[in-house]
Amino acid sequence: MVVCPAFLTGTPDWPEGPLPLRHKEIEATTAARSTYFSAACARILYGTPDRPSRWQRTAPTGETDSPIFGTEILLPDPDRPDRAFVIVHVHIQAGGSELLDVLRAVAGRRGSATPPPDLGSALPTWARLAPSARRFTIAFLTFPTLPEADPPRPVDAARIDSWSTADTWLWHLASRTANADYPPDPDHADQLLDGRVILSADWRGLVTRDGAAFLGLRPDDGADDAFFGFAQLYAHTTYLDAVLIGMIQNVAITEMIAEAARAFEAQDLTRHLARLEERAARFRNIYWLRDASAHGPANDILTAYQAQHHLPERFDAVLTEIVDLNRIAQTQEGQQVGAALGVITVVGLPFGAAFAVLQVLGVNSARDLLIGVLAALAGSGALLLTRFGRLLLRSLR
């Protein structure tokens, strides 16, 4: 599978039914997938009957040469058509080396000779891939035979003493790299496996920054296998959706960080800060989910994605930045209010003194009033030209 950021240019009009994602008696309908996740996650991933957010389409009949068998489009926020996601489901009947070559091609690795799937052909006219968008891949690989009770090593794979053959496969598939692309440092190679997800004795998973991989640890008996058909179904549905939640969170946090960085460029810091606070509160209430499901694997996959992108630390940094900006804005407002009161005092004091003198003298002619006003203006101007007056004016600005 390949997940790409995209934007919608029109109203979705796919009349086709859901993807043919099923194995034996299990069919991954929207209603069935919704029960796997919490209500908040289900609203994000599938929308509601009156506000749908996900559309699915099978590959057009007759395209037998294309490995793409289905496409999904997810729009988490109906008010942001520029923040959609395209999910392209691909089935490749080939060995692990061929699958790795396809993943390297999708990632745009140098030296990749395998043509990547034509993702653009799977899109409708009302959707476009975001330019220069990073593509997230999810790979699922099993082996028909395992003569040595262990998967064969990838060709030209990295040789790390602390890695098993399964770890080696998982890292190459999830990172979409060959040893020529990125040779791991043997002294710090175990850190590259921090996103491991323990699923069962039959398979393992690994989540990295730009990809995820699932690997079978025993021979796959094909259509008669008791489990791997279900495992493939989970990878194309619930485990994919756990990654999508993390991607939605990543986009939202990145935008909030950028908006906080532009705070001092805004003409009105207070108003800019109010919008940022509202956005952070909305994100925390709707999208900031740490537990996607009551089932462990989906939570583990989401947690691994969040850790790979440092989402908890980045969101905490945004909240801290909002607090600091609040303090600065309150300080500025206090300074401006104090400066305004000071200017009013400096300007009003000479006028009050001048009119008091005129009242004591008992004069009320126009000439005397004019002289008093001019004297008060001169006094106010003189006070504003002092160091204290200039400080008040600077604070007011």
From TrEMBL:
It comes from the Bacteria. Keywords: Membrane, Transmembrane, Transmembrane helix. The chain crosses the membrane at residues 337-363, 369-388. This is CorA-like Mg2+ transporter protein. It comes from Frankia casuarinae (strain DSM 45818 / CECT 9043 / HFP020203 / CcI3).
